[in-house]
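Entry for the shared binder. Reason: the reviewer on the internal report wants the predicted structure included alongside the sequence.
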Amino acid sequence: MPATITFHPVGCGDMTLLQLADSDQTSILVDINIRAGADDPDGEHRDVVSDLRGRLKRDAKKRPYVDAFLMTHPDEDHIRGLQKHFHLGPLADYADDEKPDAEKKIVIREVWSSPLVYRRADKSHVLCDDAKAFNKEAKRRVGVNRTKGFAGVEEGDRILVMGEDEGGKTDDLGPILVKVDESFSTVNTANKAGYFTATLLAPMPKQADAAEEEKLGKNHSSVILNMKIGADARTSDGCRFLVAGDAEVLIWERLWNKHKSNQAVLEYDLLLAPHHCSWHTLSWDSWSELREKAEVSADARSALGVTRAGAVVVASSRAIKNDDKDPPCIRAKREYESIAKDANGSFKCVGEIPSEEEPEPLTFNVTAQGVQQVAKQEAGRKAAAVIGSAATPRPHG
C-alpha cells in the first residue's frame, strides 16, 4: 500500500494522519481538533472521528491505535477531544475492551511532546482541560521511562521528547530526547529508516534574553518537523512533509537566517500552512487593520518558499473568504498560491474540498514523483484512483 497523508476537515484546527508504506502501515497522528458534534453522524460538523477510526488498525486485543501522536503545541484547536476519544494512563487500565468498536478509546502507543512549548504557552494563555491532560500523560510517560532506565518500556508508556527543556530538566533523557536539528527514524521504538525520517527544526531553545524569550512565546512556539516519507521500499525520499503548528513570523525569520546557507532542511513537497493560513505567519502587520498595505516579511516568506517541484500547500481551515478575518487570511492564501505556482504546484483548503458545505478528508498518496491527491475519500481505504499528479517528475534517492 502507498504511504498516505490525510488532512481531516476540522475547521480552523489541525488533525493530520500519516500512514507509512512499511509492512506495518505505521500511523502517525499530528494534532486533533474534534469539535462538539464532530463525532455524531447527525451533528453540525463532519464526523471526523468515524473518518479517523476507519483508517486505523486494531491491535491483538481489537483496540484502535496510532503508533505515534504528535501534539505541536497545546492550543485547544490542536488537542480538543483528547480525553473523550483517546486512552490516557497505563494500558493495563484500558477499560473499553467489552465495548463496541465505535466506542473504544484510541490507544496512543507513543507520544511525541515538547515541554518547552508548554512553558511558553502557559505564560500566554490558560490551558484547556485536554491540554492539561496531555501534559499530565506526557509527564507520566517520562517518569515511567526514567524509572525503567529507558529499557523495556511498553507500548502506551513510550514517549519522544521534542527539544530540550530549560534549566537542564531534560539532560538525563538522552534515549528519548530529540534535540533541535537532529533527525530520527524511529516510531514506537521501531526503526522505520527508508520509510520515515524526521528532522526537528523547533521549538527553539530557551533564550537567555528575557525579551527574546517572550517574543518566541508570543509567536506561537510550536514543534516543527520536516518529515521525509518513503514512497516504497525503493524510494525513501518520496515526499518531504513540513508541519509547524501555529509558528508565526519571528520563528520563520529565525529559521531562514539559520538555514539559508543549507536550505535543504526547509525543503518540502507538502506544507501544512502554519496557523491555519494566518497572515501572522508571513508578516508583522495586522491584516484587519492594514489590509493590502500590510507588508510581507521577506525572510519568513523565503523560509516558507523552499519548495521542490510540484509542491502543494494545504490550509487546514474553514473556507477562505475575501474579508478581514485572520486566520484564515485571503492575503496569506495568495502568498501561498504564489509560492506553489513558482513550483508548478497548487494550494488546497481542506474546508473547501469538495465543497464548503460538505468538506471531506483530503488525502494524498506519496509516490516517487511527489504527492498525488486521491480522487475519492473512503474511510478505511488507502488505495484509490488518482486524479493526477501534483508534482512534475523528478529523481528521488
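Summary line for the report: The domain at 4-389 is CATH 3.60.15.10 (Metallo-beta-lactamase; Chain A).
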